[in-house]
Amino acid sequence: MHIIAAKAVAFKEALQPSFGEYADNVIANAAALAEIMAGHGYRIVSGGTDNHLFLLDVFSKGITGKEGEVALDAAGITVNKNTIPFDENPPMVASGLRIGTPALTTRGMDTVAMVQVGEFIARGLAARGNETELAAIREEVACFAADFPLYPSRQPTQA
Q1: What is the CATH number of the domain that holds 60?
Q2: Which of 1, 55, 92, 121 has its CA 20 to 30 A from that of 33?
Q3: What global pTM score does this model have?
Q4: What confidence score (pLDDT) does residue 154 get?
Q5: What DSSP designation does 109 have?
Q6: Which of 118, 120, 137, 117 shows the shortest CA–CA distance to 37?
Q7: CA distances (Å), 125 to each of 5, 55, 130, in order?
Q8: Would residue 42 count as lying in a domain?
């Protein structure tokens, strides 16, 4: 029964006029973040994106997907390793990272915020293996994310 209830809530949300705007923002954020990562010299597997996620080839820069996932997790950024077409690495190592923007968009981030997110990702990948630098990035990520609370209505009002 809980699945039926969850679907009912999801369908109700999808019928709201604001849902279309949200979906457009998710796609714009993914496109912006993909462009930012391409600007850092990473290859976007499909050349870009027109949906909520993109696949980043990190192996072209000598990083495995597993290494990237571990480094970014230590930096407070959640992504997952993913194989890429014609991947030379086994699936548990992989050569890519799957990066999506729905959670960021839900928190209120926009294409301007994606610039900072992209910087955090690029720095985290560059700092893989450097626990001190990854911890510093994690602190910056936490401060940045605090400006985009999960539940703004639950935040104490400032007097």
Answers
A1: 3.90.1150.10
A2: 92
A3: 0.90
A4: 72
A5: -
A6: 118
A7: 40, 15, 10
A8: yes
